[in-house]
Amino acid sequence: MEATPTGSKVLVHTDLALSGAVAQYGRGVGMIQATASALMKQFADNLKRQLGSSGPAPASAAPAAPSARAPPAAAPQPAPPPAPAKPISGFSLMARVIWNAIVRLFTGRSS
Fold first, then answer.
1. What string of DSSP letters covers 73-105?
2. What is the C-alpha to C-alpha distance for residues 90 and 76, in angstroms, rounded to an integer?
3. Short-list 52, 39, 37, 32, CA closest to 85
4. Backbone angles phi and psi of 74, in degrees to 5
5. Distance of alpha carbon 32 from alpha carbon 25, whole angstroms
6. Which of 8, 22, 39, 101 has a 20 to 30 Å separation from 93 between CA atoms?
């Protein structure tokens, strides 16, 4: 994790060993990298949304002396469960792989 002027930057490093058809066909066309990128983007977007929606807790002032007529404080409600993750589209994933191959072909770098 690195500090940035606008927050934090998290670097993720993986050590992945593939075998079988996935290793034979997926690695060469960039499918593994595209899938990992899509998963990390989805994770980062969801984390950003959850951190943004959970603002600071409201400060409650404690009364100086308890009052006999004061109603009991309501228990805080639990946060609603997060929405289910949106599935990654196979079509958009393949389109991203093809686009990266085209960019790499003409520029020598990936987008």
1. PPPPPPPPPPPPPPPPPHHHHHHHHHHHHHHHH
2. 41
3. 39
4. -75, 140
5. 10
6. 8
List, for residues 66-108, the tens digit of each pLDDT value. Answer: 555 656 666 777 777 777 777 777 788 778 878 878 888 898 7
SS3 110: coil
Torsion of CA 72, 79, 50, 52, to 10 degrees: -20
- Report whether 38 contacts 88 (CB < 8 A): yes
Q: How far is CA 33 from the centre of its chain?
A: 16
Distance CA 64, CA 110 (A): 63
Q: Give the global pTM.
A: 0.51
Residue positions counted in the chain: 111
